[in-house]
């Protein structure tokens, strides 16, 4: 009986680990307004989210949106797309703010709010869970 | 007693920040289109010989400041910025300008603007951002190499180059004199900084140069202050490497400085750092310890939260050019080998 309980415990732990791994690896989709005709690659997304670029290639001002610090989508976006840790991003934006070069992205949380803002603003860029994508926005990368 | 109570109250503010605002993002939102940011630090400084930065063998808590930055969005292309900076009971407008993003790409800035020289000049007072408590010599007031701000017009422009990208910052105007005890006045200023972000992740090189016309207050003799700085910046993961060389010429005298700095962050909390720093305030006299200073800085930083941290560091100095230049030690009257200890609590939001 004790052996059975130990096996059951191990199985539960394995299932929990698999579930948590799949949850933390949830795919995110980078989205823009449907009318945005700019060619957007990963390099541009990185520049926009680090303040190294302030406009779209056509010269329009960009409106960058971010999810809340504790959101899963945000953790995944910065790990997979931007490739920088939260601490590094803090340092980058502190430098941008206090040198007057730019302000950090505005928060739009959760996915529903992000989609609403991106679909309403032609210069907006954001990201949401891939499972939340619908035809109100244009996906430029996953 | 007054110093102690001020220090204690600021410590209280820092602890409140650590406890309550630790998880806050970057700003206090002031309505739809305005934000408030800020930073500050409370530091203790002590030397074992020469007086410098108002510190001596008894130590001082006077090493503290607080800044508040208000920003407001004027429209989709324009923002207004104003930063108030307070230290030693005095408050000043540190910088205040309006920017405008032109449709063809560049951004214009008009007003009082932090001088874009090297890696740290625009953020020289924001201790939280750099590893060490004290700035490298290049950015210390006593070295008189880098000025803080100018009034005039700036132009920012970014573009791709090869596998990397370039950022240009050209400016013209006049240096702001925060202190009035200089023997000269600044007149017309021009300058440029070019930053190349290489295809190597986290590696940037930059070159900065400025030329400010001067005039001696007493004699009216004209002159130029010319500054050139070369910088290498490599931030990759938890490793932060920096190296800079700076040179200033004015009225036939040349000051020179360089440093190399390495920092590594463990577990997003602990950051030990090491810097080797050299300055000579007059190359013609660089063999005289009154005119040069070498400093090995060893320290450790700790982050309580993403916004609040502390630094503890020791400076092993040879030469005392900075205490002489700041007027706190007479030339030929200082100790050549001396040490300094700095401790500070700092935050930003």
Shape of chain A: globular
**Run of helices and strands of chain A:** HEHEHHEHEE
Cα distance, first to last residue of chain B?
29 Å
For the largest beta-sheet of chain B, the strand count, sense and barrel status come to: 16 strands, antiparallel, barrel
Strand content of chain A: 5-15%
Distance between the termini of chain A: 48 Å
Helix content of chain B: under 10%
**Which value, in Å, is the CA radius of gyration of chain A?**
19 Å
Q: How much is the average pLDDT of chain B?
A: 90
Largest protein interface?
A: A-B, 29 and 46 residues
Mean pLDDT of chain A: 82
Structure description:
The complex is a heterodimer of chains A (142) and B (349). With 142 residues, chain A is of the alpha/beta class. Chain A is built from five helices and five strands, in the order αβαβααβαββ. Helix content of chain A is 46%, strand content 15%. Chain B is mainly β and 349 residues long. Chain B contains two helices and 17 strands. Chain B has helices at residues 2-20, 321-325; strands at 28-29, 34-47, 60-75, 78-87, 90-101, 107-114, 149-161, 164-175, 184-197, 203-216, 222-236, 239-250, 253-264, 270-280, 292-303, 308-318, 337-348. In chain B, strands 2-3-4-5-6-7-8-9-10-11-12-13-14-15-16-17 form a 16-stranded antiparallel β-barrel. In chain B, β8 and β9 (184-197) form a beta hairpin. The radius of gyration of chain B is 20 Å and the shape is globular. Chain B starts with a helix and ends with a strand. Chains A and B meet through α4 of A and β2, β4, β5 and β6 of B.
């Amino acid at each position: 009986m004790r052996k059975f309980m130990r096996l059951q415990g191990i199985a539960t732990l394995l299932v929990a680990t698999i579930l948590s791994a799949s949850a933390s690896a949830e795919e995110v989709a980078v989205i823009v307004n449907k009318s945005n005709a700019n060619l957007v690659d990963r390099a541009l997304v990185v520049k926009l989210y680090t303040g190294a670029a302030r406009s779209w290639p056509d010269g329009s001002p960009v409106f960058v949106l971010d999810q809340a610090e504790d959101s899963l989508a945000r953790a995944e976006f910065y790990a997979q797309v931007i490739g920088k840790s939260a601490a590094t991003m803090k340092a980058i934006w502190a430098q941008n703010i206090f040198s007057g070069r730019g302000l950090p992205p505005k928060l739009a949380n959760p996915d529903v709010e992000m989609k609403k803002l991106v679909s309403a603003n032609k210069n907006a860029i954001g990201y949401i869970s891939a499972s939340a994508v619908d035809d109100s926005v244009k996906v430029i990368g996953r | 007693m007054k110093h102690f109570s001020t220090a204690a109250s600021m410590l209280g503010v820092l602890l409140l920040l650590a406890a309550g605002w630790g998880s806050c993002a970057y700003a206090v939102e002031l309505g739809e289109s305005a934000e408030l940011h800020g930073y500050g630090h409370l530091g203790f400084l002590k030397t074992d010989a020469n007086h410098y930065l108002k510190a001596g063998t008894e130590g001082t808590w006077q090493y503290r400041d607080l800044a508040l930055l208000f920003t407001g969005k004027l429209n989709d292309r324009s923002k207004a910025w104003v930063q108030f900076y307070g230290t030693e009971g005095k408050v000043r407008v540190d910088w205040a300008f309006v920017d405008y993003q032109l449709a063809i790409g560049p951004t214009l800035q008009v007003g009082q603007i932090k001088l874009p020289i090297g890696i740290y000049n625009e953020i020289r007072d924001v201790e939280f951002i750099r590893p060490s408590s004290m700035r490298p010599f290049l950015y210390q007031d006593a070295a008189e190499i880098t000025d803080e701000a100018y009034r005039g017009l700036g132009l920012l422009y970014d573009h791709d180059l090869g596998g990397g990208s370039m950022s240009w910052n050209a400016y013209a105007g006049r240096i702001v004199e925060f202190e009035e005890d200089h023997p000269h006045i600044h007149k017309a200023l021009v300058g440029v900084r070019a930053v190349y972000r290489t295809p190597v992740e986290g590696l940037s090189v930059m070159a900065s140069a400025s030329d400010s016309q001067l005039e001696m207050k007493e004699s009216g003799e004209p002159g130029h202050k010319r500054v050139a700085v070369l910088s290498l910046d490599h931030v990759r993961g938890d490793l932060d490497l920096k190296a800079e060389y700076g040179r200033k010429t004015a009225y036939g005298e040349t000051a020179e400085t360089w440093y190399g700095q390495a920092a590594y962050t463990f577990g997003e909390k602990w950051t030990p750092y090491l810097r080797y720093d050299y300055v000579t305030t007059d190359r013609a006299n660089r063999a005289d310890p009154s005119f040069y200073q070498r400093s090995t800085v060893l320290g450790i930083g700790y982050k309580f939260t993403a916004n609040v941290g502390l630094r503890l560091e020791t400076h092993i100095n040879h030469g005392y050019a900075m205490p002489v230049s700041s007027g706190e030690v007479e030339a030929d009257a200082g100790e050549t080998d001396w040490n300094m200890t700095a401790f500070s609590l700092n935050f930003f939001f």
